[in-house]
Write a structure and sequence with these properties.
The protein is α/β, with parallel strands linked by helices. It has a domain of 167 residues: P-loop containing nucleotide triphosphate hydrolases (Rossmann fold). It has 6 helices and 8 strands. The protein has a 6-stranded mixed β-sheet with strand order 4-5-3-6-7-8, sandwiched between helices. A two-stranded antiparallel ribbon has the order 1-2. Helix 5 links the parallel strand 7 and strand 8. The two termini are 29 Å apart. The structure holds guanosine-5'-triphosphate (GTP) and magnesium ion. Magnesium ion binds next to helix 2. Keywords: GTP-binding, Magnesium, Metal-binding, Nucleotide-binding. InterPro entries: Arf-like_GTPase, P-loop_NTPase, Small_GTP-bd, Small_GTPase_ARF/SAR.
Length: 305
Amino acid sequence: GSGAGRGGRRGRGGLGLGPPAEPGRAAGHPPCSRRRRSGTGAGSGQRAGPPGRGAPAGPPGASRRGCAAPARLGPTGPQAAAGRAGRGRSLRFPPQLPAVGPGPAGVPGLPSPRLRRGQEPSRHRLPLHREGRGHGKQILVLGLDGAGKTSILHSLATNHVKRSVAPTEGFNAICVNTEESQMEFLEIGGSESLRSYWKMYLPKVLLLIYVVDSADHARLPVAKQLLHQLIQNNSTLPVVVLANKQDLEGAYCITDIHDALALSDIGDERKMFLIGTHVAEDGSEISSSMRDAKELIAQLVLETQ
Ligand SMILES: Nc1nc2c(ncn2[C@@H]2O[C@H](COP(=O)(O)OP(=O)(O)OP(=O)(O)O)[C@@H](O)[C@H]2O)c(=O)[nH]1
Ligand SMILES: [Mg+2]
């Protein structure tokens, strides 16, 4: 049987995964549906694999990655607006999290907060949020470059779709408040040069959100390998896999993503969920799958704290 879905079904019907044999039930997508897409989504189509296995989840939209002005993520970037709205906040590398005061116990061996682009990171402490005082720790958001991590975080923070237009060059931290919990997401960029830092953050996080580009067939093996390496020594860390870009024509449905990532092999003890998501056109409200993902994550945070 599959390992997906351990932890049970929560929230709205179809959220997350059901019993192990039902990886395809997530987020309202029928198992491995081969529905026709309804538009001409582009996204990171340059990396998309062969079309024909689509599991469209909503209106597609053209991605601006690669053709838009390279707006920097940071205090003046799109996420800053979320921060000003009081719902989210982000900074460029390094992660000087406003809600994250210098904690009593930093994590040694992490990249320097003073690191700038092109510099080699030095060892430094990353303060973690109010650790030991009964409040939340961070939710780590990882995945290959271009998978959609930042776009998803924008959307979760604002409840409106906002696709990212630039790669994360370091960290991206966003606070998302729900009625019941405060969640601090920490994305680390997925480019090759940043992947070596991923594992440094794992020991101190509540859960891992792992985002994959469902249409990037060619790199799914790499995504799988990195995920397995990351969590091999942590048998209980809850993992939420977001099979993003379900709007793209070539997107694998979540059953295929489940197989491609060999999710049944990532441990029996952990809670593990797989949800199909997409970040639709800018400005619209987030999709029901994204709302479900947000509720699930909030629930997991409450359970894990
Ligand atoms: N079609 C489509 N495009 C998406 C979706 N989500 C994100 N994109 C686009 O994919 C590209 C990459 O998105 P990002 O959010 O920057 O990806 P990332 O994982 O943060 O990438 P790094 O910061 O480089 O690690 C952008 O052009 C987004 O607009 C989606 O669900 N569908
Ligand atoms: Mg990013």
